[in-house]
Amino acid sequence: MKQSKPAARIFVVDDHPIVREGLAAQIANDPGLELCGDAEDVAEAMTRIAASRPDVVIVDISLQTGNGIDLVKRLKAHDKAVRILVWSMYPENLYAERALRAGALGYIHKGKAAGKIIEAIRAVLAGKVYLSDEMSVKIVSRVFGDDGKQFGRSPLEALTDRELEAFELLGNGQTTQQIAQKMHVSPKTVETYRARIKEKLHLKNGTELIQHDVQWVVGKT
Fold first, then answer.
1. pTM score, two decimals?
2. How far apart are CA 11 and CA 20, in angstroms?
3. Strand order of the sheet with strand 56-59?
4. Tens digit of pLDDT for each residue in 160-219?
């Protein structure tokens, strides 16, 4: 008698328990998949993933402590074979390429994940890159020399991953000390990020930075 193929093991990293439960329910409804664990922050994820050895790790960008893009980098440094799918409410046009550069195989926006998350998991499980059609076109256009205007390239793409993380935390009303604690850097480093962000976005002062920052955070929610 032919033995059935074992279910693929999926691990979820997300800082919202209800979101984890909802995703776990979708995974449970697919006989070819099983949830092997979950976590809400970077440290917890690193420990539990090493113990459970999942086939695919689903990672949110915003975590209880730490950052999803940084977690992807750490997971790939620890195990180059691990397959990662990033899902988030953050704009795909700003974060998808960062996720791929960090080592993820796919990016899916939570707002568009209904009915597609299992499709995305299966693509990554098969070693394929998973992106929306719009994002795929954008990336191909860059490879062939598009100047970015046609697809609305954002000035924020000039920021490094860490600068963008600091920018997002500033927009959420975090103080320099709070940002330093969350990013595990010194307050001086946060101030350096602020200075670089202002320079790259051509902002004159801290007031303009906060205004620009809050507008972006409100606009993406």
1. 0.73
2. 10
3. 33-39, 8-13, 56-59, 83-88, 106-109
4. 888 888 888 887 778 888 888 888 889 899 889 888 888 888 776 666 666 655 555 444
DSSP secondary structure code for residue 84 in this structure: E
Q: How far is the C-alpha of 162 from the C-alpha of 25, rounded, in Å?
A: 33
CA distances from 40 to 57, 71, 132, 196, 215 (A): 13, 11, 26, 30, 27
Gap between the Cα atoms of 146 and 148, Å rounded: 5
Strand, helix or coil for residue 76: helix
**Which pair of tokens denotes residue 5?**
């193929």
Q: Three-state DSSP class for 131?
A: coil
* Residue that has been written with the tokens 């790939």 in this structure: 76
Per the listing, tokens 């997300």 go with 14
How is 144-190 classified by DSSP, letter by letter? TT--STTTT--GGGGS-HHHHHHHHHHHTT--HHHHHHHHTS-HHHH
Q: Are 187 and 180 spatial neighbours (Cβ–Cβ below 8 Å)?
A: yes
The end-to-end CA distance of the chain, in Å, is: 52
- By the 8 A CB rule, do 195 and 187 touch? no
Instruction: Name the nearest CA neighbour of 49 among 12, 90, 14.
Output: 12
Longest dimension (CA), the chain: 72
User: Which run of H or E residues covers position 95?
Assistant: helix 92-102
Cα separations in angstroms, 162 against 19, 72, 96: 25, 14, 15
User: Across-strand partners of 67?
Assistant: 62
